[in-house]
Write a structure and sequence with these properties.
It is built from 12 helices and 17 strands. By secondary structure, it is α/β, with parallel strands linked by helices. The strands form 4 sheets. A 7-stranded mixed sheet has the order 11-10-9-14-15-17-16, with helices on both faces. The protein has a 5-stranded mixed sheet with strand order 3-4-2-1-5. A 3-stranded antiparallel sheet has the order 6-7-8. The longest helix is centred in the middle third of the chain and has 14 residues, at 172-185.
Length: 366
């Protein structure tokens, strides 16, 4: 059975349910909604948008029916009520993103792109996530993490080196979940894969990593580069990075700032920070500030005759197109990573989400 084959109850008839019917009426028509559930006895047996409203006890009669919890505010309380009164139904509670999943299926159902059709086939039977592919299931929380008592930080072994994790991940479970997400995004089939056999960092390169995070990209290449500059504004990650890259001494410079096209106490530009330096490889993953950060690196890009750029484009809806134009105008030849990502930013219920390209790989032309 796929997502369209089940019967559904929608729990709640309040403001969120009104918005759902106003904004997602087409989606509601695509699934078999048996009725609504509301704990208010005064609403029992009334009609709500043409569907009958039932008390929670109706679940005793519908043992296989899926349950859609509309409200976010009381979602946890409703789940606890279901677990206590109807424990067999806990497995029938659908994910929060069900309607986003259905909207994506509806939006792209006529697409001729085989990469999109692969995603739609996956979404028929799986919840919506960032990466909607079968290989998503290769990664779980059972990754190995270790605790450094001296530094009070979790770490994992990555490409033969210790990679420390921000202290905000203060339990083994949180650390495992984070590491699993890193392994997932760098899967060989992932739209977020940084480097490939054909697009890699050359030996003895000068490298800039803007938006370092845990440092997996830098750790991949640090042993064979001439020097690498790490830009990271999050102090918790900076602390972890200092421990991770301590074995590599003076070939690593950590700059505790974000990058953009302006300068203040916490933000800088690559042009301002690196002055006359020529760079061979620029990786940029800066949470949606990529285009502005490239503008702030215009002089660097112009003077660096032998440079490759790896730029994330999924953080903002139209970033892929805008960054492509900018880099082409800077005489770069472009390649887009394979596949698509779902990245939930600036969305609301009534606007169908879009699938986004992960990143651009760029090589400067002659």
């Amino acid at each position: 059975m796929n997502v369209f084959d089940y019967e559904y109850f929608i729990w709640g008839t309040g403001e969120d349910a009104v918005k759902l019917n106003s904004w997602c009426s087409n989606v509601l028509k695509q699934i078999n909604v048996v009725g609504y559930i509301d704990s208010n006895p005064k609403k029992a047996n009334t009609l709500f948008y043409g569907k009958k409203v039932y008390p929670p006890s109706i679940l005793k009669e519908y043992v296989a029916c899926k349950i859609i919890i509309i409200t976010s505010k009381y979602r946890n309380e409703i789940i606890e009520q279901i677990k206590k009164s109807f424990p067999s139904h806990e497995k029938n509670i659908v994910e929060k993103n069900l309607f986003k999943r259905l909207q994506i299926i509806g939006r792209y159902k006529n697409s001729k792109d085989p990469q999109i059709q692969e995603i739609l086939d996956y979404l028929l039977n799986h919840p919506l996530t960032v990466f909607n592919y079968e290989w998503n299931n290769k990664y779980n929380k059972n990754v190995q993490v270790f605790y450094d008592d001296e530094k009070s930080l979790f770490y994992t072994w990555y490409k033969g080196n210790k990679m420390y994790i921000s202290r905000t991940y203060d339990t083994e479970e949180k650390a495992q979940e984070y590491i699993a997400s890193i392994l997932l995004e760098q899967d060989e089939a992932s739209p977020h894969l940084y480097i490939t056999e054909s697009f890699n960092v050359d030996d003895n390169s000068v490298v800039v990593d803007a938006g370092v995070g845990e440092g997996n990209f830098a750790l991949d290449v640090v042993e064979r580069v001439k020097h690498i500059y790490l830009f990271e504004p999050d102090s918790n990650w900076v602390e972890a990075l200092k421990y991770t890259f301590e074995p590599f001494g003076d070939k690593v410079s950590i700059i505790e700032k974000g990058v953009s096209d302006y300068v203040n106490a916490n933000v800088t530009t690559l042009d301002d920070e690196l002055k006359d330096l020529e760079v061979n490889f620029l990786k940029m993953d800066v949470e949606g500030e990529e285009l502005n950060a490239l503008k702030g690196a215009k002089n660097l890009l112009e003077r660096s005759s032998n440079i490759k750029c790896l730029v994330c484009t999924y953080h903002q809806e139209y970033a892929h197109e805008a960054i492509s134009v900018f880099l082409r105008n800077m005489n770069f030849e472009l390649e887009t990573s394979q596949g698509y990502m779902y990245f939930p930013t600036h969305e609301f219920m009534g606007r169908p989400p879009i699938l986004r390209r992960g990143l651009l790989r760029a090589v400067k032309g002659e």
